[in-house]
Design a protein that fits this description.
The chain has 15 helices and 11 strands. With about 400 residues, the chain is of the alpha/beta class. It has a 5-stranded parallel β-sheet with strand order 2-1-3-4-5, with helices on both faces. The chain has a 3-stranded antiparallel β-sheet with strand order 6-7-8, with no helix packed on it.
Length: about 400
Amino acid sequence: MLRVILVDDEQPALDLLEKLLITIENIENVGMFTKPDEAINKLLQERMNVVSLDIEMPGLNGIEAAEHIMAIDPGIDVFVTACHHYGAEAFEPNAIDYVLEPTTAERLSKTIARIMSKQSAGKQDKFKKERQTRKSQFICFGRFEWISDANAELTFPVKWRTSKERELMAYLVHHRNTFVTKEKILDDIWPNANLEQGTAFLHTCIYRIRKKIASVGDNYKLEFHNNCYRLETRGGECDVAEFERVTSGEMVITPDSIGEFERIANLYKSNYMEEDGFFWAQQAQEKYKSDYFELMRRIADYHLSVQNHRAAGHCLRRALLQNPYLDDINERMLRIYAKMGDRMSMQQHYERFTKLLQEELGTTPLKSTVQLFSELYYGDDNDDESKA
């Protein structure tokens, strides 16, 4: 027996649905509501199987009401009723069907049959999905990508229907495990759209993202609560989450952990979502860039502490590929060449750095850099290693 509640701001429409449902077996009409808030309060008190929602209602419309309902009980089935001018966004909250008004007994019977079939197969589908669960990973350094089966032999990027759908997924990953208000999402992703247009775009993209999460088979959760969205992840499936784990300062570099530190440093292929140009990612981009350079300094310092000058130099050269203008790292390179007794490489590095500053920035090295080179090249080569 399916327990059903009906929600529509027009009483005649509710009366029609009630009459049609009476003709269908195994259906119990638990209540009819003209206000979505009252229906939501009912769901907080009693377990239901199905909710019928009209899309076009004043105040909290059907699409938004469905989001609240799915947050209360993700297992509930929702079918929506609407006029012809509503489109794909009606399906955003995982609505199982889209019924045009006025409906008929035959059309409604098909919807109920679909719901019964889905619920009877629910447990079997759940176990099947658990067996078929695949690994996936979010790549945020460079260009945002969602890679399915990231640790298997066969990998492929998830494909997107629109650029905004992809940007919204990047945005949710950016704010992973944190609720973000719908208003902020609209301001950041659709700043030039009016409220009605932006909301319709958001609902459509959310619906498609939920379908992709289900098809990929990983156990991410896209939640809606108090007019906010949150993508719940576990952490290890995102390169930035891995990066944050070692740059937080809590992990210490030791002979046993240096390999892990270098693996994480290799994740930083390029700046955070740099190729996408998302304006909302710029602040985080600067933070991760700063964290990366500090991480490379830490790794280089470790190698210097164990007298591995070549490894330290290699580490700093990689940092300079991301930003060749960093004065302190260029000075560290001069010290490392001095410790290795490689005067030629030290001179070449200094000359390249000087030329780069002149041609690209129209400036010269800092006085400290000029003085350091002079001391190392012409003076005492046995400079105290602690300065490196």
